[in-house]
Design goal:
The chain has a six-stranded mixed sheet. It is globular, with a radius of gyration of 16 Å. By secondary structure, the protein is of the alpha+beta class. The longest helix has 13 residues. It has three helices and six strands, in the order ββββαβαβα. InterPro entries: Endo/exonu/phosph_ase_sf (IPR036691).
Length: about 150
């Protein structure tokens, strides 16, 4: 999961009928403002308020290919949410820091995707909380097949 804390104001999205917060977490007083998803199911973006605080939940899956343009487009879609706390769950299908992965920095590296994704993360002030809290643990689920 990726976490970004607020840096600036954000414009609120529009509420979508039929997408109530009760579908996400019925026990929380979450007021949904917008819900977005791409046609191919690569991302889901839920924006709203929880106790008057702006929150944005993003789930991203990117197919295992070198689609740098997808990452750049995703970064542009996130810009309106810069003033919102962002919780980002992801499967990027690339190693962002090969030194922390069990197979080392060379195996499975996709330089175009890594450059694009780290650029997006820097623009929206994201940190890799999992790797920061688990220093020295090398876990990566993608296994190479040759």
């Amino acid at each position: 999961m990726w976490l970004r804390s607020p840096r600036s104001g954000a414009s609120p999205g529009t509420a979508l009928p039929g997408c109530g917060a009760e579908q996400v977490a019925p026990q929380l007083p979450f007021q949904m403002r917008s819900f977005k998803a791409d046609i191919e199911g690569r991302y889901l973006l839920l924006n709203g308020l929880l106790d008057k605080r702006k929150l944005c939940f993003l789930n991203v899956y990117v197919p295992n290919n070198n689609d740098r343009e997808y990452y750049l487009d995703l970064g542009r879609k996130l810009l309106p949410y810069l003033g919102t706390t962002l919780f980002w769950a992801r499967d990027f299908n690339c190693m962002l820091d090969g030194m922390q992965e069990p197979h080392g920095p060379r195996l499975g590296t996709k330089p175009n995707m890594v450059t694009a994704m780290t650029g997006v993360m820097n623009r929206v002030h994201c940190l890799d909380i999992w790797h920061m809290r688990h220093l020295g643990i090398t876990e990566y689920t993608l296994r190479p097949y040759t």
